[in-house]
């Protein structure tokens, strides 16, 4: 094993890792907005058409591999006159894919709150926003945070699939380095270690946030 190869390609690998993190963070916001919309429809909407569309879309995504969705956006849409850049394909695919998964987490977290608490908020004269912020969100967020963190870590790792459509993320940089160095062991070892350290950092940060949110609870 030649560690000098890792040092040689460290700048390009680091650039790919930074791009992966940026791509994941940029995707997280629209995925969360989509998830919130789907969760609201499933929990609050009385429109049967919206309910059917939300349920059908969720069922479709839950049974669809992410790679297939990437291929549809990158290879099939141009045949119908809609061509997206590789980074946009990446953000769109990850958003469409992880939105329903995150919606399931949000729906379960909010559905677990007893309805009587909202009736109590109304009796106390609290507005809907106050009830949501101080009662619903305060209880749902600690419940949703651990599985949502797992989904974000999954999103981060699944971004490696975007290398197949030439998105210049971490795995793409690794493939480029391997094609030049012919040293897959060293490069993939560096990639694996980097993913592991990043996911550990994300999990630690989410754990600290969860402890802060639940510090008022009696053990």
TrEMBL record:
Belongs to the binding-protein-dependent transport system permease family. HisMQ subfamily. One of its GO terms (biological process) is amino acid transport. One of its GO terms (molecular function) is transmembrane transporter activity. One of its GO terms (cellular component) is ATP-binding cassette (ABC) transporter complex. The keyword Cell membrane applies. It is found in: Cell inner membrane; Cell membrane. It is a multi-pass membrane protein. Its main location: membrane. Gene3D superfamilies: MetI-like. Residues 17-206 form the ABC transmembrane type-1 domain. It comes from the Bacteria. This is Polar amino acid transport system permease protein.
């Amino acid at each position: 094993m030649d560690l000098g190869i890792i040092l040689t390609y460290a700048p390009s690998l680091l650039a790919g890792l930074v791009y992966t993190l940026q791509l994941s963070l940029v995707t997280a916001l629209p995925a969360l907005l989509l998830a919130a919309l789907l969760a609201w429809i499933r929990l609050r909407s009385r429109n049967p058409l919206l309910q059917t569309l939300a349920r059908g879309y969720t069922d479709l995504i839950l049974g669809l591999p992410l790679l297939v969705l990437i291929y549809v956006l990158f290879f099939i849409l141009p045949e119908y006159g809609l061509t997206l850049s590789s980074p946009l394909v990446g953000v769109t695919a990850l958003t469409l894919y992880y939105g329903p998964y995150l919606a399931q987490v949000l729906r379960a977290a909010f559905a677990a709150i007893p309805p009587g608490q909202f009736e109590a908020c109304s009796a106390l004269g609290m507005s809907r926003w106050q009830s949501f912020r101080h009662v619903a969100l305060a209880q749902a967020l600690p419940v949703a945070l651990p599985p949502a963190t797992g989904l974000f870590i999954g999103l981060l790792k699944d971004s490696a699939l975007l290398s197949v459509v030439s998105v210049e993320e971490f795995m793409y940089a690794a493939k480029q380095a391997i094609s030049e160095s012919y040293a897959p062991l060293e490069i993939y070892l560096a990639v694996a270690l980097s993913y592991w350290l990043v996911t550990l950092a994300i999990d630690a940060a989410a754990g600290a946030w969860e402890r802060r949110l639940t510090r008022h609870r009696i053990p």
